[in-house]
């Protein structure tokens, strides 16, 4: 992977930063955030402005360009990747390390007195605007909205915004109709005494209307906004997608409906002016509910006194707690996904060992091929991380021809992959050795496994926030001086984004909502040694009630049930580092893999994969 | 304990809330926070306004009185105590429970439209003012500063503000002179480009000048402020304390000094006007550094553009990391404290069992008596929690004649106590049974012990914040559905406040600073069964570097060394619930108690206590 040469691009950007054609006054710095106008984590090619200007195309990062400097903030998952993808014009700012300045502090340290810092108001979330604007103002600078996106002005071959057909989900998948979701949302609005709710996140629009799309790769969403009033529903969406009779039928656009369920379809681009009109028509005490992560542009459309901002919207919270139909769908999806992976690992073991002809890309493609054979497969849920040896230490690695390595019996292989099925979203990581792992590799793998089990088997009170569980995943690593520089888990959508809020498991102190039965998160501790190998063990787990001996304050307890049912390679385990309880956990888990996935492999007539499964799920025996 | 009758007081308060003599416009609600003008946790009698108006005298709580309601917010430590101490005029708001409204939400729900909410601007911290003011404003109400404290206007027999003599600490105790502390502070100020630093917390003033006082019971502090410029030092303090030649000598008030170390002594009450003068004289880019917890009144004295606010001051952070002299002092203090407790427990065992004549108060007094026999004893570090049976479930219980219970062989006894010695501050909890504990009591005790050990023996990377360790203390309790409703640990001062920032171990997401070698915190998980018993095991522990097998990213690791060396009652332990590692921890700990405390008991000729120590530190044997 050679870095993108950005000298000329930066020169052009610095020119438009001073050009009266685009800015009222010259800006001395320009911020290029990661997201799109919906603050999406994964974005469409037309929104990959940060990657365009810097070359760094990881899923998280913020670029800031000043007259003299170009700097990129990203987190531990991407330190190596960003360093590889960016040329010498760029300084990498490693977030989470003690000496790394915040964007604000850095700007204050490099800007000349009284500078203007520009940003696209549609791209920056309102809460970030507020924080940054305040910090800059207190140092004598100004954050200013630049209406025209300056990257777009120099991006001559910028791709078109996608506008793909929609997928309708019926009740058997969603469990709740869009009308009932609107009713529930309005009741939350009434509770908080707000009259309007603005849906800005793409997955929230999709969830609310029981629709899916494919405007963004891996995320089954479509570009749209919605504004829900107590008696009105406005959907802002482009293209001829609303001409599809099935979509019209699904949304009952042509039916005689009670007026409060009549959906008004409006152009995507009219959201700002419509919202400004809503804002202008408000009487005192009438409030509009927005996420505090909605864009600065949309937030500003509502006068401050009328805004009701929360970190998580009622849709975000409702969406996170999966109902019975969604949970059953997720179970089905994970069974199919495990079948595909058993096929893959069986195939790899046969191909890799004798022939040495399988590269990371071939393995990733093969994984996709096996997944695509399963019912209701739609697409992958993220770019497959297929990495062997040193590539495994690049936490969010994606194999490309320049880095593509051949799998061998001498290196650890890490596969983090998942798919979108119509009934659910999967995300699983397994770390395998096809030869003989070293004692050190086994030791590290076993610590990671101990952390994985510590979270998966944890019992904790109702109302506990996920971040309180993060250290359980690290304790075994910490004991011998090891650690990993990423969170332990993220929420997972139901045929929706593979990363979703409002819950998660992380050492970062973020305002996660308490875990509730029905929520689904990943459990994925790891260990990475730069230049050598990467280890990660990831299951998607469902929050379920736990039976306990006592019940303090009648609060009830929760624990996790693994939805992912793919064998964990026992060859990599140093059994003597496990406690008896941990050993039993592995054996019980493998027994369940045998039963559930075994039956499905049998049903699908996949005999070889079944043989592989049986062999990989032999019980561990602890000699002590 | 019978509740305080507050009907008449509330009537009077509601009158002054409308009286033009005290308020420009009537206030519909009046907030009575817990703290004093220095945001102290422990306060002088003249500052106990919340206790005066409500009867509830726990260390944490906020009262709000409206025309119709009177409500008290407090945390899990105080639910029972507050319920006992307050009459029917008061509603208890249990913080931390899901359905308890915040003060802001509650105010919005009960106030008539366009209300004014009053508060003493010297008592409310600026960050709380900001949050509350914003929430009220967005609901159409106003938070207003009421200059005269309304409680003081109805508190006819309010005690005088204390003004006791000062204690000087020489270098053998502090390790660093006040001059060197000023130099270090000015270098931090230069780093942040601030010209002035305002010292508002009483323990920060005391630490900075190597002085101690006794204006507040248990906390060796004195009423004072300081304002440090790059070339000036102003100390705001009252009384004839500055006439003491030893104090003058210590502060070099009469020496020919470089002007930047010359201390100007000013009246305590002149801080506001002096600070306003500083604020008025600032040029652009000149900043004044204040804690964001400083009072609203002092914060407002500095125009907004000139304020530099941080959650923790450089003094708070420097004070938390104990130097070698302080650490050695803390060790000495804990050895003396353990000697006193060995004497006490030996005495209790002899008195309680045969005679049944020892009450909670007698036991507490006896503990103080034994402590006061030790060298450099100054006073207790907090009100002794001496509680038996059901009283043990009142987390911050203090025995009074109405509740005083006799210790018996049938109940669990919990003693949480500590002292101020000139060389250090102690805080230790032991839970004992003088008869035969039930299997259930032993089970609960053992879970608490497992939690205590999990924290004490934890190894974690440099830079880890204490809140990431909190769940380790709960895991064994959680496994069987139990928990406790308080944090796990707090910072401990060096002959200073027994609770100090900026570090701690808590499930609450607060902005604690990372743990560093030299910091000192408590480790005190518990379990409480309302109406039956309370269990808590508390040591004060020192953060020390840990040796680990590997060293990820060269970060280094930390662990804890117990400074408290008092036997943990083995009779209460169900050995079979311990792992071998935990069992070894207990045995190693008891071995150290024998060696270190045994030698000191020997030296002090305390033979009986030594016999008791030896008997209590017999190694556990795990049969499995």
Automatic annotation (TrEMBL), chains A, B:
EC number: 3.4.11.9
GO biological process: proteolysis
Domain Peptidase M24 C-terminal as annotated: residue spans: 558-620
Chief location bin: cytoplasm
Pfam families named in the record: Creatinase_N, Creatinase_N_2, Peptidase_M24, Peptidase_M24_C
Creatinase N-terminal domain location: 48-150
Record-annotated Peptidase M24 domain positions: 328-543
Compartments reported by the entry: Cytoplasm
Keyword GTP-binding: no
PANTHER family attached to this UniProt entry: XAA-PRO AMINOPEPTIDASE 1
Name this protein carries in UniProt: Xaa-Pro aminopeptidase 1
Organism: Oceanites oceanicus (Wilson's storm petrel)
């Amino acid at each position: 992977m050679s870095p993108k040469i950005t000298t000329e691009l930066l020169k052009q950007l610095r020119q438009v930063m001073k050009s009266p054609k685009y800015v009222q006054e010259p800006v001395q710095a320009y911020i290029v955030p990661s997201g799109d106008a919906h603050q999406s984590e994964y974005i469409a090619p037309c929104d990959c402005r940060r990657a365009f200007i810097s070359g760094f195309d990881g899923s998280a990062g913020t670029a800031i360009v000043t007259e003299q400097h170009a700097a990129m903030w990203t987190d531990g998952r991407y330190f190596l990747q960003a360093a590889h993808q960016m040329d010498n014009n760029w300084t990498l700012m490693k977030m989470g390390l003690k000496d790394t300045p915040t964007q604000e502090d850095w700007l204050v340290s490099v800007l000349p007195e009284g500078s203007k810092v520009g940003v696209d108001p549609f791209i920056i979330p309102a809460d970030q605007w507020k924080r940054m604007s305040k910090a800059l103002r207190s140092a004598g600078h100004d954050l200013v909205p630049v209406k025209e996106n300056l990257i777009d002005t120099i991006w001559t071959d910028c791709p078109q915004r996608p506008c793909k057909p929609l997928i309708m989900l019926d009740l058997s998948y969603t469990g709740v109709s869009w009308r009932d979701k609107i009713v529930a949302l309005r009741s939350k609005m009434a509770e908080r005494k707000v009259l309007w709710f603005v849906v800005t996140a793409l997955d929230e629009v999709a969830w609310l209307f029981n629709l899916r799309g494919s405007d963004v790769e891996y995320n089954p969403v479509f570009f749209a906004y919605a504004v829900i009033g107590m008696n009105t529903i406005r959907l802002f969406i482009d293209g001829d997608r609303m001409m599809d009779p099935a979509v019209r039928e699904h949304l009952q656009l042509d039916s005689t409906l009670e007026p409060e369920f009549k959906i008004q379809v409006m152009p995507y681009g009219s959201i700002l002016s419509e919202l400004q009109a809503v804002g202008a028509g408000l009487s005192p005490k009438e409030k509009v509910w927005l996420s505090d992560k909605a864009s600065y542009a949309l937030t500003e459309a509502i006068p401050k006194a009328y805004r009701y901002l929360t970190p998580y919207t009622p849709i975000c919270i409702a969406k996170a707690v999966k109902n019975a139909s969604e949970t059953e769908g997720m179970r089905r999806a994970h069974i199919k996904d495990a079948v595909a992976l058993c096929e893959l690992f069986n195939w790899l073991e046969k191909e890799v060992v004798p022939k040495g002809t399988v590269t990371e890309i071939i393995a990733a493609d093969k994984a996709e091929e096996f997944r695509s054979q399963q019912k209701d497969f739609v697409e992958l849920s993220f770019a497959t991380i297929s990495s062997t040896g040193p590539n495994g230490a690049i936490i969010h690695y994606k194999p490309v021809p320049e880095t593509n390595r051949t799998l061998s019996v001498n290196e650890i292989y890490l596969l983090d992959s998942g798919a979108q099925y119509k009934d659910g979203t999967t995300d699983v990581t397994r770390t395998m050795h096809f030869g003989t792992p070293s004692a050190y590799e086994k030791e590290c793998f076993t610590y990671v496994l101990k952390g994985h089990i510590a979270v998966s088997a944890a019992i904790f009170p109702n109302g506990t926030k996920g971040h309180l569980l993060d250290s359980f995943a690290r304790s075994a690593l910490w004991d011998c001086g090891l650690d990993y520089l990423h969170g332990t888990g993220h929420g997972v959508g139901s045929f929706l984004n593979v990363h979703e809020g409002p819950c998660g498991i992380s050492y970062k102190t973020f305002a996660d909502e308490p875990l509730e039965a029905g929520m689904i998160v990943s459990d994925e501790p790891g260990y990475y040694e730069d230049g050598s190998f990467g280890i990660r063990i990831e299951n998607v787990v469902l929050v379920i009630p736990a039976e306990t001996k006592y019940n303090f304050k009648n609060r009830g307890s929760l624990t996790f049930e693994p939805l992912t049912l793919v064998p964990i390679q026992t060859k990599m385990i140093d059994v003597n580092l496990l406690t008896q309880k941990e050993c039993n956990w592995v054996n019980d888990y493998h027994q369940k893999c045998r039963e559930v996935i075994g039956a499905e492999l049998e049903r699908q007539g996949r005999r070889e994969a079944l043989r592989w499964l049986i062999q990989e799920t032999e019980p561990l025996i602890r000699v002590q």
